[in-house]
Specification:
Blueprint: H1 6-24, E1 27-35, E2 38-42, E3 45-48, E4 54-56, E5 60-63, E6 68-73, E7 78-81, E8 86-93, E9 101-108, E10 111-114, E11 125-130, E12 133-147, E13 150-164, E14 167-172, E15 176-179, H2 193-201
Length: 211
Amino acid sequence: MRRFSAPWLAVAVCICAAGMAHAETRTVGTVDKVQAQVVAVQAGQTRELAATAALLFRDRCRSGRGARLQATLADGTQLTMGENATLVVDEFVYDPFQPAALSVRVPKGPFLFVGGHIEEQAGAKVDIHTPIGTLGVRGTTVWGGPIDNGYGVLVLSGEVTVSTRHGTVTLRQGQATMVFGQARPQSARAWTADRTKRAVASISFATPAGR
């Protein structure tokens, strides 16, 4: 058996570690627009995000007061986060030689998810992890976030299955649910125009003065 000297072994380990780090920080999308301050934290380093900036795999994006961020992933999926929110792309597989998968985590704040090409692939798994549980999405535009002292999920198109520790509900276009504390998700129903308007406003960008 061929033996490797310690120096060569150290070099091999470094190359392997560098390759793994590169894979972990690959670009998965691009920032479309930003309002106020949004930062991304990656490997202990913080950078401020602006339009055209790269969105990296497992970036922990954080928005401040009055902030918004809209980004488009490589498959066309569009993610929007409102103020005081956190968003992470935990899994992104968009490769003709592998089963497609997308997992987004939004542990805090409001968001809007507009599905891209990954959702169109047979057998693709697309999940959004929220403070109340997991949203399984398909052909979807969905809003989620804190509202009216609870957590709401509103489906603008497609279908979403909301799964919590206390129950599951399936929502279709125009339907929504609320989760309060440890209670089961409410049954699917239409929201009032006022609640819908406030939900959409939470992820909408300010209109420039003069328009």
